[in-house]
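1st attempt posting a full record on here, be nice pls
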Amino acid sequence: SITTPGVVLKLANPPPDVFVNIDPKRLARLFYNLINNAADAMRQGGKITLRFTVADGILRVAVADTGHGVPLEIAAHLFEPFTTYGKAHGTGLGLSICRRIAEDHGGRIWAESVPGKGATFFFTLPLEVNF
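the predicted structure (as tokens):
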């Protein structure tokens, strides 16, 4: 769980009322990893914002933080196994696991960041069309 003092988690909008075909435990791990990484990047406090959008049969989730952003030296390798930066206890597997979960669900994951201005991690999930 997030235990970083001063970190606030906000929903920019409510999750949409749509159907996606998911493995609940694995999707929960994806959210956990992204939110926990964001909190870890904001040891002095900050804000994590979740935003949901639906378009063209896709649910897009954005997890944005007000941390220091992704360092340029690891940006190109961010979702590869054992890529880590500045964590005392990180294994560097969290984001590669997130990528696998998103892809196994038929989606994708990526990040946008400006060093010193925070990072936003996006992932997509296809909507269930036969519900």
